[in-house]
């Protein structure tokens, strides 16, 4: 596969070659001119869509399971999310402290301090895996704890230690199997960088500094074509990513600050924590306008996301409601959601759902005030969204399966483990 610069060189060389052959023929001047014109026209007309907006690489998340990628330091809320994704009280956790230096390992060789910390977070079934020997990491005996794990935690330290010990071993294979079974892999600091395909700050440069590009460069790749940097804003690393992307433009750069992380499920992630996640995808986005600006692609621009914001890895864009493609739904299915739904017992407020032009519309009534009809679109069964206020409508059914109302929320996921991240719309 040719990268963009190689492609330009390739087309340039072949165009010069073909032009020189034309000049060496016995065609007359007008024949030569016609051929050259046709060649230029052919080149300029090839895939005009790609010429106006260059094709971009995709980043793909795990098809099953989840990742927690933390910037360094964890809030209580972030630990609770990891605990719940791990299975809660029945979680089977494997902790890998291999990123630690030797002093830390020797200080607590049986990892008793770490064990107490995880027990304080609610975990009861905890095992530790550590080696510097990649041959040992490639044995069936060593990987046994991963066979039944529902969660894995990658401790911080130096990410290259994880790469050196576990890449291309049975340990690495079993880590992917944890995800395939629906488990979660989490980590912060070094345990975040290793989860990308490119290992940010993988080692010291020739001057002994930990710059963004080091050796080794290959991470675990739980998210493809992606580089995770950590301690991002706190350590003023926000401009380092441009150095990497200059050499590796196919990568998606994600910088995660301390006390902040992302939960990756499939090809989408949601920001959790107290601070910000910086996105380097060749575009610029602002919540003020909620528009994706591609006018200055490649001009060293980045933007930040906060708690609750979502991002589509595969499409490399913010996953705000106006960018979501609605699912198809039949006219019969749409009629299921039609009706008046009581909002308050006083009947001062109530809502009406109706179908207009094959679109479900929400209309509110406040005393004598009739509000505008808002079109809402199907996302999945019993879940609709609007594209302006970016609300989510979760319809509720009774025991017979009949729709009896709905919850209006500011976030998509309101059931199960992530419910506390949702704020009821007032």
From TrEMBL:
Coiled-coil intervals: none
Domain of life: Bacteria
Keyword Hydrolase: yes
Keyword tRNA processing among record annotations: no
Keywords for this protein: Hydrolase, Protease, Serine protease
GO MF, one annotated term: serine-type peptidase activity
Gene Ontology BP term (one): proteolysis
UniProt xrefs under Gene3D superfamilies: 3.40.50.880
InterPro entries: Class_I_gatase-like, Peptidase_S51
Sequence similarity: Belongs to the peptidase S51 family.
PANTHER family assigned: CYANOPHYCINASE
Name of this chain's protein: Cyanophycinase
Taxonomic source organism: Algoriphagus chordae
């Amino acid at each position: 596969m040719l990268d963009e610069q190689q492609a330009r060189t390739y087309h340039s060389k072949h165009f010069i070659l073909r032009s020189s052959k034309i000049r060496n023929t016995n065609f007359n001047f007008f024949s030569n001119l016609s051929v050259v014109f046709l060649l230029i026209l052919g080149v300029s007309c090839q895939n005009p869509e790609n010429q106006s907006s260059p094709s971009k690489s995709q980043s793909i998340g795990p098809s099953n399971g989840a990742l927690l990628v933390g910037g360094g330091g964890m809030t209580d809320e972030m630990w609770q999310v990891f605990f719940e994704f791990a299975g809660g009280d029945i979680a089977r956790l494997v902790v890998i402290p291999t990123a630690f230096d030797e002093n830390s390992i020797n200080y607590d060789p049986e990892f008793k301090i770490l064990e107490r910390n995880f027990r304080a977070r609610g975990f009861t079934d905890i095992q530790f895996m550590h080696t510097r020997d990649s041959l040992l990491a490639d044995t069936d005996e060593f990987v046994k704890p991963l066979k039944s794990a529902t969660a894995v935690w990658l401790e911080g330290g130096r990410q290259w230690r994880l790469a050196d010990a576990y890449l291309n071993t049975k340990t690495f294979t079993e880590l992917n199997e944890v995800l395939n079974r629906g488990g979660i892999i989490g980590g912060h600091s070094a345990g975040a960088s290793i989860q990308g395909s490119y290992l940010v700050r993988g080692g010291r440069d020739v001057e002994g500094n930990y710059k963004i590009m080091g050796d080794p460069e290959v991470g675990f790749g739980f998210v493809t074509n992606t580089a995770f940097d950590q301690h991002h804003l706190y350590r003023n690393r926000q401009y380092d990513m441009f150095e990497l992307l200059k050499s590796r433009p196919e990568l998606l750069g994600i910088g995660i600050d301390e006390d902040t992380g992302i939960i990756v499920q499939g090809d989408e992630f949601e920001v959790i924590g107290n601070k910000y996640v910086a996105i380097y995808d060749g575009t610029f986005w602002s919540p003020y306008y909620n528009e994706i600006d591609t006018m200055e692609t490649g001009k060293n621009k980045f933007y930040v996301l906060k708690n609750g914001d979502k991002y589509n890895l595969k499409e490399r864009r913010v996953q705000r409601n106006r960018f979501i493609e609605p699912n198809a739904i039949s006219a019969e299915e749409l009629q299921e959601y039609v009706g008046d739904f009581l909002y308050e017992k006083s009947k001062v407020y109530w809502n009406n759902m109706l179908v207009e032009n094959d679109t479900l519309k929400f209309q509110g009534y406040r005393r004598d005030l009739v509000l505008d009809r808002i079109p809402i679109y199907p996302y999945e069964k019993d879940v609709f969204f609007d594209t302006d206020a970016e609300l989510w409508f979760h319809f509720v059914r009774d025991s017979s399966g009949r729709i009896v109302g709905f919850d209006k929320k500011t976030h998509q996921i309101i059931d199960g483990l992530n419910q506390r991240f949702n704020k009821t719309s007032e």
